[in-house]
């Protein structure tokens, strides 16, 4: 069948697929209450489209390429409504990475030079972006007849999406790893299930009505970035930059030349057993530094969770209060414990680390130490640039405001006469 290039295509037949997965898994995937419609209420209206548009006259095409997307009603318009969309994809003057064979893990990505925390490592326009709920649900429920039917149905959509890609992009998609060769997944679906990264948080920034339930997950695949291997102590994170509609790999901490660049495919705060269970559908057993000694790692992560409540503003305010009955060093010592555990476990992508940095910044502001406040602020902003999807706007504004004028904050210098020894030791952020 001949289709005009760049046109949108109606994606039909999803309802029966969703009903099938509901029947097999007990999950509620379709809207039941017609009086409370949501963007996913009518899956029949999802559209297959190219972003940016492609033309028969290739000279008119976006030089950064185009992504095949399956989107909800209104989502495409919201993406195009961004100022100046699409912005050029940021590129490095020279590559900071290379792809190399890794024993037992196919290709992996390695740093070709030293990379700083918060630095962009690699960016690309995704090959595909679309709903991922059925992908994740598929990983959680047994593959029975109903799932097979759903996969076959989605395989038809993926065939259309892949067929719309440029020939070399079609080859790139088909060359990606597939860890679902023996569970009934058709090849194109298996590749999507193996290589997709969640982009729901980023999509929600331009399309706020995207529900926050796991059935509204969206996933994207990158020709290069889907090659990055997993670690439970990742040194980088992949995010979707919506203004340039690009996947971007950003360093979470300094990375040495020659070091493998890794991201996490699962919640790094889970226990060893939970992580391995979540990673099983990817067809490997993680043997990262953390997984080599699971008892020690589980204990440290449990300790971290138990310390998390010390990172609230409430504890900082208590520390500031001159009538507090606690020794001046009590709370800063708790911060020190958090820092040590995060560093031992390599958990720089977690909210615990950015919350810790924010409280440390507040401590130095209360001590009136401008240089250390600035260092904390720079580290926080580096982390925020690497974990963009999880950062609430208020936290980013607060970090930027403190960086611009630390002495404007009400607690500036309030503890200037008190310099707890443990806070001094924290200086090297
Ligand atoms: Zn691991």
TrEMBL record:
Residues 85-266 form the SET domain. PROSITE patterns: SET (PS50280). InterPro entries: SET_dom, SET_dom_sf, SET_domain_protein. Residues 26-45 are annotated as: Disordered. Transmembrane segments: none annotated. CDD domains: SET_SMYD (cd20071). This is SET domain-containing protein. It comes from Obba rivulosa.
């Amino acid at each position: 069948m001949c289709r005009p290039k760049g046109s949108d295509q109606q994606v039909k037949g999803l309802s029966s697929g969703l009903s099938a997965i509901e029947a097999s898994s007990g999950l509620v995937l379709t809207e039941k209450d017609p009086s409370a419609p949501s963007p996913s209420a009518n899956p029949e209206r999802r559209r297959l489209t190219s972003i940016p548009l492609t033309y028969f006259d290739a000279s008119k095409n976006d030089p950064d390429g185009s992504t095949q997307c399956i989107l909800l009603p209104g989502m495409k318009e919201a993406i195009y409504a961004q100022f100046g969309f699409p912005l050029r994809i940021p590129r490095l003057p020279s590559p900071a990475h290379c792809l190399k064979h890794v024993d037992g893990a196919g290709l992996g990505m390695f740093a070709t030079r030293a990379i700083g925390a918060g630095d962009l490592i690699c960016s690309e326009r995704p090959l595909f972006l679309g709903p991922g709920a059925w992908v994740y649900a598929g990983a959680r429920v047994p593959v029975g007849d109903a799932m097979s039917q759903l996969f076959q149905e989605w395989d038809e959509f993926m065939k259309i999406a892949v067929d719309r890609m440029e020939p070399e992009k079609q080859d790139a998609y088909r060359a990606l790893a597939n860890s679902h060769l023996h569970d009934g997944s058709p090849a194109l679906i298996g590749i999507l299930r193996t290589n997709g990264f969640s982009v729901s948080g980023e999509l929600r920034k331009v399309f706020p009505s995207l529900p926050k339930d796991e059935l509204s997950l969206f996933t994207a695949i990158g020709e290069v970035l889907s090659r990055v291997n997993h670690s439970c102590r990742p040194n980088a994170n992949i995010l979707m930059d919506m203004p340039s509609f690009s996947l971007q790999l950003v360093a979470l901490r300094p990375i040495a030349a020659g070091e493998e660049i890794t991201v996490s495919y699962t919640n790094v705060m889970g226990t060893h057993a939970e992580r391995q269970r979540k990673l099983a559908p990817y067809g490997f057993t993680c043997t990262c530094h953390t997984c080599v000694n699971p008892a020690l790692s589980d204990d440290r992560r449990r300790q971290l969770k138990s310390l998390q409540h010390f990172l609230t503003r409430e504890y900082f305010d208590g520390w500031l209060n001159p009538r507090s009955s606690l020794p001046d060093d009590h709370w800063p010592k708790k911060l020190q414990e958090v820092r040590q555990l995060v560093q031992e476990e390599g958990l720089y992508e977690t909210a615990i680390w950015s919350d810790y940095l924010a409280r440390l910044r507040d401590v130095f502001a209360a001590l009136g130490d401008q240089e250390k406040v600035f260092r904390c602020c720079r580290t926080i902003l580096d982390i925020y640039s690497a974990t963009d999807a999880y950062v609430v706007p208020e936290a980013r504004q607060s970090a930027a405001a403190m960086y611009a004028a630390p002495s404007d904050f009400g607690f500036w210098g309030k503890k200037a006469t008190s310099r707890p020894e443990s806070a001094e030791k924290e200086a090297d952020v």
